[in-house]
């Protein structure tokens, strides 16, 4: 089997790692091994963060909807239940935008949810 020294491939690989690590502190941006470890860890954090972002936004939307619907006399869970019974299918992102904007449409939705809950009882 021929001997392989990996000249340009190794250099390219190391350059790629060091470019990704630029801006890191001290040896993590200068030395290949430290940079490799830091880059791997940062990529793991990025991967997890992309999934975490979805959770964080959903919980933010729920908090905003709850605050707005509570001011109008309905808790979040009852509001969502009422919307479902009324046949309104808006996602939480849109509801949160309506709630944060102080939209009159949101108040109408709360009234619709209250009416649907009253029908069932």
Architecture overview:
The protein has 121 residues and is mainly alpha-helical. The chain has one domain: c-terminal domain of poly(a) binding protein. The chain is 75% helix and 0% strand. It contains 5 helices and no strands. The chain has helices at 7-20, 32-71, 76-86, 92-100, 104-120. Helix 1 (7-20) runs parallel beside helix 2. The mean pLDDT is 94.
First-to-last CA distance: 82 Å
Corresponding CATH superfamily: Ribosomal protein L20, C-terminal domain
The main β sheet shows up as:
none
SS element count, helices: 5
Q: Provide the domain count.
A: 1
Total strand count, please? Answer: 0
Describe the global form: rod-shaped
Unreliable sequence segments:
none
Structural class: mainly alpha
Any chance you could write out the topology, listing elements then pairs?
Elements: H1 7-20, H2 32-71, H3 76-86, H4 92-100, H5 104-120
Provide keyphrases for this structure.
121 residues; mainly alpha; c-terminal domain of poly(a) binding protein; 5 helices; 75% helix; 0% strand; rod-shaped
Short description:
This protein is an all-alpha fold and 121 residues long. Helix content is 75%, strand content 0%. The protein has a single domain (8-120), classed as Ribosomal protein L20, C-terminal domain (c-terminal domain of poly(a) binding protein, Orthogonal Bundle).
